[in-house]
Amino acid sequence: MDTATQTLLFAAELVEENGTYALVVQDVRTGTVQTTPVPRAMVDKLPTFLSALAAKLNPPTQRRRW
């Protein structure tokens, strides 16, 4: 039986306040937090970026024809 343990390394949040957006990333190991403003155009494209990242990191397995 596989008993893998997951360890949270970073936590990220995209927050909106009064029409402005910020990406907040916490390094859980050190307890440090970094915040950077994010333009609305990037926020709108975030689902596309995440899909592209997932496709790059987890490409579909190709079936070989014999």
Average pLDDT metric = 91
| Proportion of residues in helical segments | 25-40%
State the helix count.
1
Poorly predicted ranges = none
Q: What pattern of helices and strands is seen along the backbone?
A: EEEH
The biggest beta sheet reads: 3 strands, antiparallel
Strands in their spatial order, largest beta sheet: 1-2-3
Q: Proportion of β residues?
A: 25-35%
Through-space gap between termini: 34 Å
Q: Judging from the principal axes of the Cα atoms, what is the shape?
A: flat
Structural class: alpha+beta
- Rg from C-alpha positions? 17 Å
- Tell me how many strands there are: 3
Structure overview:
This protein has 66 residues and is an alpha+beta fold. The chain has one helix spanning 40-57; strands at residues 10-17, 20-27, 32-38. A 3-stranded antiparallel β-sheet has the order 1-2-3. A hairpin with a 2-residue loop joins strand 1 and strand 2 (20-27). The longest helix has 18 residues, at 40-57. It is flat.
In short:
By secondary structure, the chain is an alpha+beta fold.
